[in-house]
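Appendix B, example 12.
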Amino acid sequence: MEKLRFATRLNSFASKAHSYWPSIKGKPTIRQMIERASKVKGLTDVDLNYPQHLNEAPKELGKFITDCGLNVNGMAMRYSTNPEFQLGAFTHPDEKVRREAIELTKRGIDCGRELGTNLMTIWLGQDGFDYSFQADYNKMWDDLIYAFREVAEYAPDCDISIEYKPNEPRSFSILPDVSTTLLAISDIGAQNIGVTLDFAHVLYADEMPAFAAAMIARRTKIMGLHLNDGYHKRDDGLMVASANPKATLELIWQLRKAGFDGAYYFDTFPDASGLDPVHECEVNIQTVNQLVKIADQLNSVDQLNVAIANQDAVSSQGIINQFLLGR
């Protein structure tokens, strides 16, 4: 099996800070979290939030990351620098605020280039609505498409990846599910726009992860993958395959068949309950390696292909149980 790339949510490594830095006061610095993440066996990459994680020159931070034995997998926009973004970034009613969000995104892409990555993930959690008669839906959509189109044209060499989520913090997100996201990508019409598939977000949207992956692959490209788990009610950020092992296995199986070659990024929240983030990340890596191995083995199981072709759920479950629960 080829060597996989594993990336992680950097803020996870603020969990149990006092157990790792006994004399620390307040939150750890970006460099401290990177250094702690580098202790994870098997971890190859980190992702950085822009602009929150960039409090120094990108090249200097990039050298520090390299010296820690890691690479930068991608950048992720966080539109919280301006309080006005609470009403929207790409869809804010004020053109000046929309312009600020677009220019901030361009600077984030430029920063990523300096750090050696061409992946920019955009999650528009603040773009949406909360009340009836609050929004002009058609204008919001046009503003959204215009903003993405300008960003895509600015950086044709960069993968601009949309991460969808049903809601939170807004009651209704403008990009809540796979269908709406694919519609937006069709309207944008740029070759360098794709999707970041977040497992817990997909569950939250009441979707089957492997089905969402299949639909994305038909229309565009899965540019990013966020692995975690949850109970469908919110963005729980649990450890990989801890709640939905079969759905996780099916997603990985689907991704392998589609030729996904990106990093397996862990968007989990060990800091929410004070878990050891290094150990948690190592178990996530172990879990994915095991599931990838099983997924590849499934390709040679003719009975599974027959069962799926016939939508024979009883037979397919029996076969999968043998691999997951022991033969």
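The chain is about 45% helix and 15% strand. The first helix runs from residue 17 to 20.
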